Amino acid sequence: MKELILVIAKALVDHPEDVRVHEREDERSTIYELSVHPSDVGKIIGKQGRIAKAMRTVVNSAATKSNKRVIVDIQS
Asked: A GO molecular-function term, please (predicted)?
């Protein structure tokens, strides 16, 4: 899942070398914290959050086999 988020994020930004994903797990969910270059935050979020919502939809669809909830958190 972490690799999927990295591939999507690196394709969207101007500074792909600054894309980082940190994974945290607890008993009911897995949280992926996505951080990018400060000038690329708007490109990851998109107009009215459409890009971020689409990324979360893709990640949630890929994680349907696991019983855990998957959260993608965009760090600014």
From this structure: RNA binding
